[in-house]
Fold this protein.
Amino acid sequence: MDCKMKNLLMIAYQFPPQNSGGSHRPYRFAKYLKEFNINPVVITTQIDEDIQDDSLVENIENIKVIRTPVKKRVFFEKILQKQYFNILDPEHKKWKDYLFEAVDKVTKKIDFCAIYVTVPPFSIADIAIELSKKYNLPLILDMRDHFSYWNITPFPSYLHYKLILNKERNWFKNANFIIAVSEQMIDDFKKLHPSIDVNKYIVIKNSFENELKSIPNVINLRKGTKDNPIVIGYVGSFYYEPYQREMIFKPWWKKKPYQWFQYTPKKEDWLYRSPYFFFKTISSFMQKYPTLKDLFRVEFVGKQPVWLKNMIKEFNLEDIVILKGFMPHKESLEFQKRCDALLGTSMKVIEGRDYCIAGKSYEYISNLKPILAFATDGTQKDFFKESGLGVMFDPDNLDENVEIFKRFILGEIVLKPNRDFILNHNAKSSTKKLAYIVDEVCKK
């Protein structure tokens, strides 16, 4: 890699101390890029106090961060930004003027060799392309999620889907490199956009920041007891909503007239991302082995949606499952360390493969704890299995799951951590891959 320090303009709508799904990844990149002779300058939005978490700002003073305001939407604009009238989120309209002003000022002082932008919000890709063209700078587009294949809920119509697909293709056409967080995402992109040069795609997965001094060759799980039960923890959201799932699978003739034209390019069942199949397993386990029901408990950290509380009641798990509510990120990491095991789930792609690896999964493997992986075919399942830390469950095989869970609770399972795989997902290793891309575009 070229030893000359390069300046990289990083555009991130969310950045610490905002505690949101989109803030951790660009922060970890920015934190370590200087070790690879790249000086990051981050332009982001002003801190939203509702999601502020000061425990995220360790070493942030070493990163040059420019914060700008965003416009507030009036009522009429909110109506026009409804999905039926628009294919993009409104953030680009709220931020564009402030972002362009900030970029104009900083480019007069610093000579940049490239622009990096992370999405979602997906609309930020539009203004990043404008900036790339205006300042004649190569663009690195970091796709943390699918845009055209984001199917938690149906698209309003087939036309909406085609417009979104075309929008995504235009982004890829104008980007010099397209980063995705899993191999499956890139496989999907290649099928959706065959005209895009495949050499533009590169996988850079998410990461963890723990410094692992040693990784044991073998982990022997302990047996739960009444005095010292096994604690199974979960951190974060599930991205599941019963109503949205109903819209995915409900026949059009059973929907309301304004929903008749809804379209899904593929069906994703996000019930599998929820703890439903885990709850089903432990409920059946307690019925089959009632004398063992006091040997474990479950604790959740994060939001407490109504459906989650109802699901706990459905399986009569009120005495087993504890909802601990929101925790700052630092406390969340400490909670994970206290747990004996961690729960992992994944959504199910009907006649396909899951493309998501939950961000928490990287923290999970850094804790070197067993992961109860209720995972469907896809990247999340592959990730847990290859780490050597996954206790693998097939969500659709209840009888087998009950017996696996019994062996887990009785300490009869031995894990063999994959040292190289785990270390390859620390933040410095991931940043090295981004640094390579920056080096490549800056040579041109």
